[in-house]
Model the fold of this input.
Amino acid sequence: MSSHPVLPALALDLPMLPLRDVVIFPHMVIPLFVGRPKSIKALELAMAAERRIMLVAQKTAANDEPTTTDMFDVGCISTILQMLKLPDGTVKVLVEGQQRAKVTHINDVETHFIANVTPVEVVEPKLTAKGEKTPELEALRRAVMQQFDQYVKLNKKIPPEILSSISSIDDPGRLADTISAHLPLKLESKQIILSLAEVKARLKNLFEQIEREVDILNVDKKIRGRVKRAMEKNQRDFYLNEQVKAIQKELGDGDEGTDFADLEKKIKAAKMSKEALAKAQGELKKLKLMSPMSAEATVVRNYIDVLIGLPWSKKSKIKHDLPAAETVLNQDHYGLDKVKDRILEYLAVQQRVDKVKAPILCLVGPPGVGKTSLGQSIAKATGRKFVRMALGGMRDEAEIRGHRRTYIGALPGKVLSSLSKVGVRNPLFLLDEIDKLGTEYRGDPSSALLEVLDPEQNHTFADHYVEVDFDLSDVMFVATSNSMNIPSALLDRMEVIRLAGYTEDEKTNIATTYLLPKQMSNNGVKTNELLITNEAVKDIVRYYTREAGVRSLERELSKICRKVVKGLLLKKLKGKVVVTPDSLNEYLGVRKYNYGRAEEQNQVGQVVGLAWTEVGGDLLTIEAALMPGKGIITRTGSLGDVMKESVEAARTVVRSRASRLGIKEEMFEKRDIHIHVPDGATPKDGPSAGAAMTTAFVSALTGIPVRGDVAMTGEITLRGEVTAIGGLKEKLLAALRGGIKTVLIPEENAKDLQDIPENVKNGLEIVPVKWIDKVLELALERAPVPLPDLEVASEELKHESALAAEATHDIIKTGGRESTKH
Done:
């Protein structure tokens, strides 16, 4: 480092170079990169003279074109040591500070700045009589050195070698300038030190600055240590962000930014209930006091987000146009008049009454009849958004009510979660397969649904996670089920609408109107390329599907469409393809099913009964055969307990009327009877085969054939009364399809005939009966001939009874003796 003579305090003009973010001190050597044209011109002028230039810091570093007022008043007269022009047009210059100077005037010529400056004479501290430093000055110098030494130890960016070079400086003024040059102080703070001509004042100011920087570094070190201890291993990636948060907290700055402000705005905009609003605001206060990266803060934040996401006040506009709603329902579904009428009734009442509770419907019917899709059509007709929740296999109560927040990963139940997704508080909520709910140790979800589906309670539905009441009274709930196997308390809260299986004519209509156009479109078949006749559709229904709904029917139609497309593309088919009953084998293969048909000849001991299954009705043949034996009844055909009891009841009815039916008593003692209900592999049960069993008994015992075109259904009592049964529509459909002409039904079921389609009633002779005598009169080819002498038969019966009593007495005695042996 070179030494320069001290300039006298006389004004002189020098080229001036404005500096950005840099303050040059005397004896300081620093490289500068210069790019502004005025600055480069000033350097060139200085190099042409004595290499002296005035360096002054700008007040605003961002100003590219500073004026004479944008510079500080005090700068440093410096010497240019080296100057190098770079290829990009900029200049790299190495300068050394020489002496402080005060700027008295700046002349802005077009090409550069000329500054009129006055060198500042340094006010040296007083010395002792021996020419040594005063104790006060020495103490101040040492204090500055000690503080700077501590600062270098705390700040790893400053190399320790600086201390050894500074310790050799004996001049207090130069010491202060050198230390100031190495400190990362603000521009204004360095400018203040530069403007102090008195060495003692300069040392005091520097001591204060170093002490403040040391305090900041100590706090920073303490913060770093605390943050590092608080962080877990998996949070180290967030170290820098956490450090900033901790610094803000240490400085007393509690503002977490706009995040909390946004949450507050969202809470107000959600229009929550008073209880929910108080809860959300309380949780937000807790969140502000937590560390943002803590697990508990995440739980609280998620909870607030759930509260904000619930549709507390937003509703979709309900449509009140009855004709339009009726049109929508009829376009999407064929038949199902009861359900459609109930929806239209609800819309009609809603027009008259502002606040009407939405009905809670339960659609019960076999698979494939359109229960789920009907829910979508109802939503479309009423203008509600559609939400579907599948309940099949659900076993945990928390799926409905949610988990408590104390559990890790807790979430609200599916009811409120679905409402959050759909964004309104009055959607149509479809509870699909409500009869498939399970039960286990974690609770009974059907019990949790009691509160949801009760109109008197669901306005204060409490989810375990949300912990505040939510109003579900505006939601329209529709449940679907395949059977009535629903808990009674749950069933009591719903309005049950039964959907019977479709008739053959209804399936044909649905196939031609809805399913076939849909499958042709899905498979790319044009309308002029395929025609399936009505007879072919009926044969598909009869011989290729066995279901109450139309899912299998749709699959078979899709198969035909695919084969037609394949044939057309391979040039195997040409023109318009017409599918008839005779050509079905080519597209669908051999027939899969054969429905029961009426016997062409009347048979002894063979009766046509009617059965109900989940896929519709069917003919049920009951056979009775007589053989020598000891009065034993054999039952085969996979009969259930109820049907076995029907056999016993039928036998009792026949035996109690044996004389009137022309059956001798010995027939029951010396003949075995075999009752068989084919086919044997299919389990059968139910209470509606009693009348058919009785008729089979009578035919077998009397030898009178049973008419093959007559079918019957009805349970029997011991008095011979025929009682009511269920599934009448399906049974009559099976009878019509099987070629039956006359159907005998219980008189109590005559009221159900109003729900039977007219084409079914016109195609069958339906006879309501109350007693078994009427059944036998209509079902047998001829009436049985009573026994000729009822009195003689009565005496014989008394004699046989006496003999039986004596035999029983002997058996009792024998049994007594046997029991004594034991």
User: Anything to note?
Assistant: Residues 135-223 form a domain with the Methane Monooxygenase Hydroxylase; Chain G, domain 1 fold (CATH 1.20.58.1480). The chain has 28 helices and 26 strands. The first helix runs from residue 37 to 48.
